[in-house]
Write a structure and sequence with these properties.
alpha/beta; Spore Coat Polysaccharide Biosynthesis Protein SpsA, Chain A; four-stranded mixed β-sheet; 42% helix; 15% strand; globular
């Protein structure tokens, strides 16, 4: 009888023939072997499917998931399909153009064993410029690493105030039981599907942050993140996609009933740049909000300086 893998790694791919093989190789190079890799085809028309099938034919830990015609497309739906099809108690994700560091699984599994109450483990990511357009840089952990964070601290700090880096999908390990509790990726989003899942977890469950760099997030002119930043997305500033995400957070908080005073105020702060006129009540409310907005602005300014200095 074959034992089930401990970790299910999910890699959606769409016309990724140039990078998919390298991503798969970074999983095969892990220093632990107790994993399965699900390659989820999201409608590729290039040579990606052949590459995936060829590798799967030589490694029984690797499977190709061909989704039925008419299935909803996009990274969120593909990852959810992989979650449903996988068998590991732990879940990890790797996009087809990113790479795991060889120690990634060993690091997050050790952290999961040492922190059984943690629903999520994450660490810093290397922003990787393989063409040398800019020097690589590693996300700072901003004093968060090496400890367990109780909810909803990281929701407020990372997703709402933006005082620190949001976990990259390639540097995360989740417990399947936690994902089952909160639901998977939000398929309504194209850009914020990961942050919506993090928000649901941060709101309810403990999270451990490791200081170890876990993955390489490929940066190039044709990447999804680069294209998004040329349009409606700026990971450090105001943009329409974030407004829609914050509206979703407000609705989710309302529906969940898990709204404390600090979460409500932090959400007001996050949404204030998108509300005209601001929907704040008393003079005291407006003064508190003004102070909070000024503080958050100073923190973002410092973070931008640190990022620029690192490159």
């Amino acid at each position: 009888m074959t034992s089930l893998p401990r970790v299910t790694i999910i890699t959606p791919f769409l016309n990724a023939e140039a990078t998919l093989g390298e991503a798969i190789a970074s999983v095969q190079a892990q220093t632990v072997a107790d994993w399965e890799l699900l390659l989820v085809d999201d409608g590729s028309t290039d040579d990606s499917v052949r590459i995936a099938n060829d590798v799967a034919a030589t490694d029984p830990r690797i499977k190709v998931l061909n989704r039925p015609p008419g299935s909803k497309r996009g990274a969120a739906a593909a990852r959810n399909a992989g979650i449903e099809a996988g068998s590991g108690d732990l879940l990890a994700f790797l996009d087809a153009d990113d790479l795991y560091e060889p120690h990634m699984l060993r690091t997050v599994l050790a952290a999961a064993d040492a922190n059984p109450e943690a629903a999520m483990i994450f660490g810093p990511t290397r922003w990787w410029y393989p063409d040398g357009e800019r020097p690589d840089w590693i996300e700072p952990t901003d004093g968060l690493a090496g400890r367990l964070h109780q909810p909803p601290r990281l929701l407020r700090r990372l997703l709402l105030i933006q005082n620190g880096h949001v976990p990259c999908t390639c540097s995360v390990l989740l417990r399947r039981s936690a994902v089952s509790t909160v639901g998977g990726f939000e398929e309504r989003f194209d850009l914020y599907e990961d942050q919506a899942l993090w928000a649901k977890l941060f709101l309810r469950l403990p999270v451990f942050v490791t200081p170890v760099t876990l993955a390489r997030y490929r940066q190039y002119s044709g990447s999804t993140s680069a294209a998004a930043e040329r349009g409606v997305y700026d990971h450090m500033g105001k943009h329409p996609a974030r407004a829609a995400f914050l509206d979703w957070v407000a609705q989710h908080l309302q529906e969940s009933g898990l709204r404390g005073f600090h979460v409500r105020w932090t959400l007001r702060l996050a949404r204030a740049p998108y509300v005209a006129p601001p929907t704040i009540g008393s003079r005291a409310d407006r003064l508190i909000l003004k102070i909070m907005m000024w503080t958050a602005k100073q923190r973002r300014r410092i973070r931008r300086k640190l990022v620029r200095a690192s490159v």
